[in-house]
Design goal:
The complex is a heterodimer of chains A (370) and B (462).
Chain A: E1 14-16, E2 20-22, H1 24-42, E3 49-54, H2 59-73, E4 82-90, H3 96-107, E5 113-117, E6 130-131, H4 139-150, H5 154-175, E7 180-182, H6 187-200, H7 206-210, E8 213-214, E9 220-222, H8 230-240, H9 255-269, H10 273-283, E10 284-285, H11 312-324, H12 336-341, H13 353-361
Parallel strand pairs in A: 3-4, 3-7, 4-5, 7-9
Antiparallel strand pairs in A: 1-2, 5-6, 8-9
Chain B: E1 15-16, E2 23-24, H1 26-43, E3 52-56, H2 61-76, E4 82-89, H3 96-110, E5 114-118, H4 119-123, H5 127-134, H6 139-158, E6 162-164, H7 169-182, H8 185-190, E7 195-196, E8 204-205, H9 213-223, H10 240-253, H11 257-267, E9 269-270, E10 280-281, E11 288-289, H12 295-304, H13 315-341, H14 363-383, H15 387-413, H16 417-422, H17 436-443, H18 453-461
Parallel strand pairs in B: 3-4, 3-6, 4-5, 6-8
Antiparallel strand pairs in B: 1-2, 7-8, 10-11
Helix pairs in contact in B: 2-9, 5-14, 7-10, 7-11, 15-18
Classes of the chains: A alpha/beta (370), B alpha/beta (462).
Chain lengths: 370, 462
């Protein structure tokens, strides 16, 4: 029998990446070390500060809850010094029994959870989050939100929903006096997110969307379990006998679903796929970070104006012009016709490339002051 | 009622552009296609007036269309460029030998001088011989590295100011994805730039950077350009295939994602604290390299020493391999000396691996044998009497393949009834168009002349 490669005392029980054998104890220590190291080495949190911890009941969220509670329960110098504020955003399609289960999951640990509807995004003056109860839904906003989302293609909807959630998390973090937010994104989800973000034209935003810290707003979004893979999470849940809720993911055919399928398939054959993708993401930064004066109204990313002589943005717009107008009238580049037919409304003025593209798919207006 | 051209010229539309979703007639498509490339060339400041430019020609669709469009635009907009064709003969039987005939056709059609350089002349090895050594995996590494340098050498011989390559938008998007998957941050940084090359080197430019592969195929098809459409016989095992499969799947969902990926690559920056390799000149061959000795030299050294895997994988492995090899050489030299003293004429077993005709126990030589056998078989087949029929079959296959390719393309982007039914088009065109494409195809005697039919018949001749 082979022994755990870490302690070399006990027979190994868990095989990771088809290669590394660990015993239960070493494995659990390793996972929680990854979580603590991620927070520790970045030195972003101050002592006992309020942290909004976003939960959705899924695998990542369940493990994040467990790791935070374990850290708080410690009585030595390693005690996790934060004040957690648990929070859940209720989706438009989520049924009440699911939300109740999530509340139970938190209450069982003697912690309160704040709840809000995602459709609050449509309302200017947002209602306060409710503690341990499902808040009343604004039906008008709910219908409007559903309509808006159903008008979009599935790829755009996924991307747009992520931006809405980000904005609402920040908004409620401020409401609940938190300066930082924890989200439960794993290295697997982040690798998938990198591939889908690239395909959406968000290459310049990788550092904020995939990295440990998103500091586009004064409220920082942190991803403390970004070094833990889905494989590790599944083992952790089995060993610790946790009960994640069954989060229903829409099975629509989208850029994101294709990226997910691809990464998971490649990971089967090349065990280092996810870690390579994440390592690549860590090396990607932002062009002239301090020079950004304009920010995208939807995703708050800095807008870089005309760094290159020619980018895919100009090329696409030019393609549109030459395929719209008759031959004689296309001779003048930069004519008013260019504005009229642009495939990217408000781009580089109010919106970034990808958000502008999303915006062009929206039929109803957005709550933007454009 | 037929769908009319989006520009309002009054003509019937023949295709829907994958990039913008607009339906265009043949002439407006030509105009849009060419004008866009002109826009890329002028906006990207790719050339200066009066320069000599080498077009890297493989005989494939991209380089054929590039040569055609460059010639057209050079005349139309008076670039004043002196254009010539530059081809590299890798020595791949059943692929490059045939495609070079197409390049020669291009030379005659477009009246441009042509220069062909072969791996055999430059490096002493053909790709067939290299594959016999290395096997079916990793051989693209050799081919790619050698071609890069071969193009530089060719350009220097032709005394041109820059090399134009036929990389299209799909190729570039694919490369972005592949470099992310491989974690190659240095290449990720430079793969989207339209013009590459540092001081002292001949820059490469990509005029088709924003042109979709699909449109290139359509353009060549409608213009009835002669090109060679077979995938390289050694390519299927390349890692690039994964990135390509992903891109194709994504493109089905949102055709514009190719441009979006390119935009991502263009606006991406590498963090300042990440160390990147610096470009310098190889100490041995004096061509561009990121290392002291360039990859081409390492690979070549490996081949010549009978260690074909020398340049594959980490450089630390290469060092180890070389050390082993040197100690082995020393060892065998010693033994030989002893044997000579003893008047024995038996050659040491450890030496056998590197010398050709001897039997060998290591895996490397086994694989070599196997592939030489395959090559022999191929050669036999081609040289014997059946060659005519043999090639005929091949070209027939190609014809069919090419035909299905253009047909699927036309199904997706050509406008006819079936495209409406297929449900692939997001913005469905309401009005079915009566068999424009089919008519088009029927007008020609050979349904595949644009993509490969003519090629097929040409091949038989050769």
């Amino acid at each position: 029998m082979s022994f755990c490669q870490k302690c070399k005392l006990v027979p190994g029980t868990i095989l990771l990446r088809l290669r590394d054998l660990y015993c239960n104890d070493c494995f659990l220590t390793n996972v929680s070390h990854k979580f603590r190291a991620c927070i520790g080495k970045n030195r972003i949190l101050t002592q006992n500060e309020n942290v909004l911890i976003c939960l959705n009941g899924g695998l990542g969220s369940t493990i994040l809850l467990n790791l935070v509670l374990n850290g708080l329960a410690l009585n030595n110098h390693k005690k996790l010094l934060i004040t957690p504020v648990f929070f859940h955003l209720i989706g438009t399609e989520e049924n009440k029994s699911f939300t109740k289960l999530l509340i139970e999951q938190c209450m069982n640990q003697n912690y309160d959870i704040n709840l809000c509807h995602i459709s609050e995004y449509m309302i200017k003056i947002k209602s306060k989050p409710k503690l341990n109860h499902i808040p009343e839904r604004n039906e008008e906003a709910h219908v409007e939100m559903k309509k808006k989302l159903s008008d979009m293609s599935s790829s755009t909807r996924n991307d747009y929903l992520a931006k809405i959630k980000r904005e609402l998390f920040i908004c409620y973090a401020k409401e609940l006096q938190c300066n930082s937010i924890f989200t439960a994104e794993t290295s697997t989800t982040l690798a998938i997110k990198l591939i889908s973000n690239l395909s959406l034209g968000r290459g310049s935003q990788v550092q904020h969307d995939i990295g440990f810290c998103d500091n586009r707003n004064e409220v920082k979004i942190l991803r403390p379990i970004k070094d833990i893979t889905l494989e590790e999470i599944q083992h952790y849940i089995t060993i610790s006998q946790l009960t994640p809720l069954n989060v229903r993911h829409a099975q629509e055919y989208s850029l994101q679903s294709v990226a997910k399928l691809f990464v998971n398939d490649l990971q089967q054959n090349f065990q280092s796929t996810i870690s390579t993708i994440c390592k690549t993401a860590e090396k990607i930064g932002i062009q002239n970070e301090n020079k950004h004066k304009i920010k995208c109204l939807i995703c708050e990313s800095g807008i870089n104006k005309n760094q290159c002589k020619l980018t895919a943005l100009e090329a696409t717009n030019y393609s549109k012009i030459v395929s719209m107008a008759q031959q004689e009238s296309t001779s003048g580049i930069g004519s008013p016709i260019e504005q009229q037919f642009s495939m990217f409304p408000h781009v580089n003025k109010y919106l970034c490339y990808a958000c502008s593209k999303n915006y062009s798919e929206m039929k109803s207006t957005v709550p933007l002051n454009i | 009622m037929p769908v009319l051209c989006r520009t309002g010229c009054g003509e019937k539309a023949v295709l829907k552009r994958p990039k913008t979703g607009d339906a265009l007639c043949k002439n407006c498509f030509y105009h849009a296609f060419e004008t866009e490339i002109h826009y890329t060339i002028t906006k990207g400041e790719l050339f200066n007036k009066g320069e000599s430019v080498a077009i890297a020609a493989s005989g494939g669709k991209d380089s054929t269309v590039l040569a055609h469009v460059m010639k057209t635009l050079n005349k139309r907009y008076e670039y004043g460029l002196n254009l010539m064709l530059l081809s590299i003969d890798e020595g791949i039987t059943g692929y490059r030998d045939d495609s070079l005939e197409t390049v020669k056709q291009n030379r005659d059609d477009y009246e441009m001088p042509l220069k062909i350089l072969s791996y055999k002349d430059l490096y002493g090895w053909t790709m067939d011989e290299i594959v016999a050594q290395i096997g079916r995996k990793n051989n693209c590494t050799f081919c790619g590295v050698f071609r890069r340098q071969a193009l530089d050498r060719g350009a220097a011989m032709l005394n041109v100011k820059c090399i134009a390559t036929g990389h299209n938008a799909d190729d570039i998007a694919e490369t972005v994805l592949m470099n992310v998957l491989r974690g190659d941050i240095a290449r990720l940084k430079r793969c989207t730039s339209i013009s590459t090359g540092s001081e002292g080197t001949i820059p490469r430019v990509k005029p088709l950077k924003y042109t979709y592969e699909k449109e290139i195929v359509m353009y060549a098809h409608y213009k009835k350009l002669v090109y060679f459409s077979t995938e390289c016989v050694f390519a299927p095992n390349a890692y690039r295939g994964h990135a390509r499969a992903l891109l194709k799947d994504m493109e089905k969902i949102r055709p514009s994602c190719i441009m979006d990926i390119i935009y991502s690559g263009e606006t991406m920056a590498v963090k300042e604290d990440v160390s990147l390799p610096t470009q310098r000149l190889c100490v041995r061959c004096k061509f561009v390299s990121s290392q002291e000795v360039c990859k081409a030299c390492v690979l070549l050294e490996g081949l010549n020493k009978g260690l074909p895997r020398l340049g594959i994988g980490k450089s630390s492995k290469a060092k180890k391999m070389l050390e082993e090899y040197n100690s082995k050489l020393e060892h065998s030299a010693k033994e030989r000396a002893i044997q000579d003293l003893n008047d024995h004429k038996v050659i040491n077993g450890s030496d056998k691996c590197s010398s050709k005709g001897k039997s060998c126990k290591s895996g490397l030589c086994k694989s070599k044998k196997k592939y030489t056998e395959i090559d022999n078989h191929v050669n036999k087949c081609c040289n014997s009497d059946c060659s005519g029929r043999c090639k005929c079959n091949q070209s027939n296959d190609k014809e069919n393949e090419g035909n299905t390719k253009i047909n699927t393309l036309l199904e997706q982007y050509g406008i006819n009834e079936s495209s409406n039914d297929s449900g692939i088009d997001q913005n469905k065109l309401d009005v079915p168009n009566n068999d424009i494409v089919e008519d088009l195809l029927n007008q020609e005697e050979d349904p595949c002349s644009g993509s490969c039919g003519k090629m097929g018949s040409l091949q038989i001749g050769f």
